[in-house]
Amino acid sequence: MAVAALVLGVAWLFWIGSAFALGFGYVARQQIRERGEGGWGMATAGIVLGWVAFGLLGLSIAVAIAEPAPY
């Protein structure tokens, strides 16, 4: 799960991958806590990259709305 979160966070896949990166990352961190396994850093990196991608999406939407239409 942590590896999947990291890969999807890096790939982004038009922000759909970022949503999956967040989901896999949070589930992976929960499993790591319960089972005492490794991979905490990869799961966290996937979560961070997922949120960064959503931040960029929000920024690009805000710029697109605020930008005046060319005449």
Describe the protein.
The structure is a single chain. With 71 residues, the protein is an all-alpha fold. 80% of the residues lie in helices and 0% in strands. It contains 3 helices and no strands. Helix 1 runs antiparallel to helix 2 (16-35) and helix 1 (2-11) packs parallel to helix 3. The model has no long low-confidence stretch (mean pLDDT 90).
Q: What's the quick description here?
A:
With 71 residues, this protein is mainly alpha-helical.
Keywords:
71 residues, rod-shaped, mainly alpha, 0% strand, single chain
Question: What are the secondary-structure elements, in order, as H or E?
Answer: HHH
Radius of gyration: 15 Å
End-to-end CA span: 49 Å
Q: Averaging pLDDT over every residue, what do you get?
A: 90
Give the overall shape, derived from the CA principal axes: rod-shaped
The largest β sheet comes out as: none
Number of strands: 0
Helical fraction equals: over 70%
Assembly category: single chain
